Amino acid sequence: MSTRKPLGLAALLAAAVLAATVGPVRAEFPDKPITLIIPWAAGGSTDQAARMLAKAAEAHLGQPVVVENKPGGSTNIGMAELARAKPDGYTIGTLSSTSYLLAAQGRQVPFDPIGAFSYVSYFGDNLIGITVLSKSRWTTLADLLAEGKASPGKVKYGTAGVATTQHLTTEALQRASGARFVHIPQQGSAASVPALLGEHVDFLTETSVWGPFVKDGQVRLLAVATPKRAAAYPDVPTLNELGFTSLRSVQAIIAPAGVPEPVRARLEGAFRKALADATFRQTMERLSMEVVDMPGAEVKALVESQYALAKDLVASFGKKQ
Amino acid sequence: MIESLQQIGYGLALALQPANLLYAFVGSLLGTLVGVLPGLGPVTTIAVLLPVTYQVGDPLGAVIMLASIYYGAMYGGSTTSILLKVPGEAASVITCIDGYEMAKQGRAGPALAIAAIGSFVAGTVSVVALSLVGPVFARYALSFGPPEYFALAVCGLALSATLSLGSPVRGLVMVAAGIVLGLIGIDTVSGRERFTFGILELSDGIEMVPMLMGLFGLGEILVNLEEKGAFKLVSDRIGRLMPSREDWRRSAGAIGRGSLFGFLIGLIPGGGAILGALVSYTVEKRISKHPEEFGRGAIAGVAGPESANNAAASASFIPLLTLGLPSNAVTAVLFAGLLIQNVQPGPLMMTEHRDVFWGVISSMYVGNVMLLILNLPLVGLWAQLLRVPFWILGPAILTVAIFGTFSLRNSWFDVGVLMASGAVGYLFRKASLDAGPLIMAFILANILDTSLRQSLLMGDGHPAIFVTRPICATILAVALAVVTVQLVAWLRRRPGLIRDEAT
Lengths: 321, 503
Prior knowledge:
heterodimer; A: about 325 residues; alpha/beta; D-Maltodextrin-Binding Protein, domain 2; six-stranded mixed beta sheet; five-stranded mixed beta sheet; about 40% helix; B: about 500 residues; mainly alpha; two-stranded antiparallel ribbon; 22 helices; about 75% helix; globular; disordered C terminus
């Protein structure tokens, strides 16, 4: 140990001299690679989009952004790890609505679903739509809701699972319209489409997995749940237009709570600038995700209001059951 | 038909391009290698190679390589099963039963040969079937809804009871344990956690791959370590490779039936190579003129399942490519591989990515020929791999298994599952308990439970839905028949049962 001391001292001295000549001792954030935790398996839609976004943000940060997939527990495992990470800005992650919806549903999570994070930026909304088979008797959402009111419990619908954005959006729709449908949860979005095509459910509220089937004419898209009409389906009305509330399918960049504001702002700047990247936009378009730019503060407010809405919805359908 | 032939011609022209031939060869070689090495399977390998394919740039080349790893592993897996009684990869687990017995009797050569030939025949037949009738068959898959899945799961459990090697009681205990383990995690229908004891990592259930690797791979390694020997290579020499005329007579039918069942099961979303092999083994045992030989080195017990797992592997490309529906862990990883290459699997793939669709299917013809050459004359070479002293191979496999497990989800918990399953697998071996039925029940438990409740929701709570749907009713009738036949047989045997138990 003692033999090392002089060397350490020398290094300190050198550093001090360097600092004196160059400027502030602490290098500007970031001075080392940043880890981006994606709480989903590699290859999924969030993973593909976030990887492209991270690549684009590297240019604005001047440091590599290393993606780490931590799937499991419907994002809970990755989110728990992010919540535990040191709030220095070198560990950030992606937020999907799935995470706080689980908590809203009453699932125990080892972190505060809203307060454990600071909010960097938004990057998009998954396109969620209500779809039926083209040969079905429903040509508009109103038709479907009318039947749901006339014969409650007869019409069955599928989503990726309980307490997903898809499920809660459909619950909100039932509450507002008075229609009654039976939810048949599927094991993930990929399993939903065959359930509709095989006529095991009557309609689907799902992310854009129905895209290719709408294109080839087998499936009819009745409404979309995005705030604005989807670029790829300009003729399809939004739920908001039709007078219903819909939940956002949030895709955002977050960090652990307590990240110093200058660092958070630096990340926000880089990730919002990255939204303009052509490859990222192409990826989003291919995945039928809408690119949305939003400052961190607004993301936080949005997530808080969505969380409250979801809790309210869960309480009301909990009573119904 | 003519149109299909034109498409295959077009695909072959692509598959025979030098670069694509090279990708198919590299994939076949890698597939055989990971198939031979226990603990390493196609899922891990393809998952590990996904980032590499990103660099390939050409979607067709990348997908050809990934696909050939998958069916290559189906070839290689049998070698280890026969020589070591360790499944080189999961779908070869059935081959262990009779293949290893044959090897013990000095007939490793014919066992290896018939496995490779059966794989080749089944692989080729199912690729032909895939290219001719695949798109049509895909439509039938859609009529499989929750009630049909439920019926299939019931049927599978009924079948897995007959597979159980020891006494029926031991088999039933393992099935029960498998169901309980399979129910751990979030319940699809209510969204509630079950049997997780608040452990976050258990909320998706126990991860299958580390559990499989542990129960079969690590358990075996531990037993081997205890015996301080080399890997228990049963015969120093593989011996005469070519099967005898009698072997051929007994295998030909098994290969044909295995190809057929494997192909049909591979088409069903959720069906896969393991299930195909399992069904084939059960059928062969049932219809054989020499059922007493099963478990004691019946060549049909090697030929059938090995053909079936290859046919199922090829057939599972149909739901993957035409429906965008991964039917098992390997095709799920391949699905990700396609997406990385910007190719969306689904009903539009045949038109939007015609080159990839037909190129990959045609490359399977080429790949199967390469694999026959790699596995038949060169089988001795692969067996040499297993002759590496155990003190090198054991730890090496252990390391690869740990890395592979960790790489799947970057999860230390999964590594823990691997270790724990390894310990349990060791104890099972010591207690002569067969982990096969446990794994089957583990996989089927989730389907059984979820599809039962989805069906009841679909049928407004009335179980009538199970008998009013023709496909479902038929499968359930088959299951009932299987159980009845077994029950009758068991009741007849019953006086002798206690004596059997004692031996």
